[in-house]
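Pipeline run #58 for the internal structure catalog. This entry was flagged by the ingest filter as a single-chain record with no existing model, so it goes straight to prediction. Upstream metadata was stripped on purpose; only the residue string is passed forward. Reviewer on rotation: M.T. Logging verbosity set to normal.
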Amino acid sequence: MKKLHFLPVLIIFYLLPTAALADQIDTIAELFKQGNATDLTKQLAPTLDVSLLKKEDTYSNTQAGALLSKFFTQNKPKSVKVLHRVNTSNTYRLGVLLLDTDKGAFRISFTLNSVKGTLQIIDLRIEAEKA
């Protein structure tokens, strides 16, 4: 009977890491909604693949941050919606967002991978949403 008292605590400790990691996708979505390139840059790996409106290349964290800043200057965010998430692994995450801006809608996909023990964006794609 005493073992049952610990069951809720065990369930909470089991689910807590999964919930915390899933929240990183929501955190990134909120940063896109705010147009916060500075804090988004903190989520980026030191080097990452970026595809921004059909222009693809590998950039440093700083260069990608400058691209995001320019994107947000040209496209003021209005709202964001998480369309899809994959969070079945502790070392890998995938998020797909729909960002609505003053210039139109954009589909954003990003891959988070463990870099030195922290999940960081290693791949970022921003493309115009096809209606």
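catalog note: The chain has one domain: 2-128.
catalog note: Residues 2-34 form the longest helix (33 residues).
status: ready for reviewer M.T.
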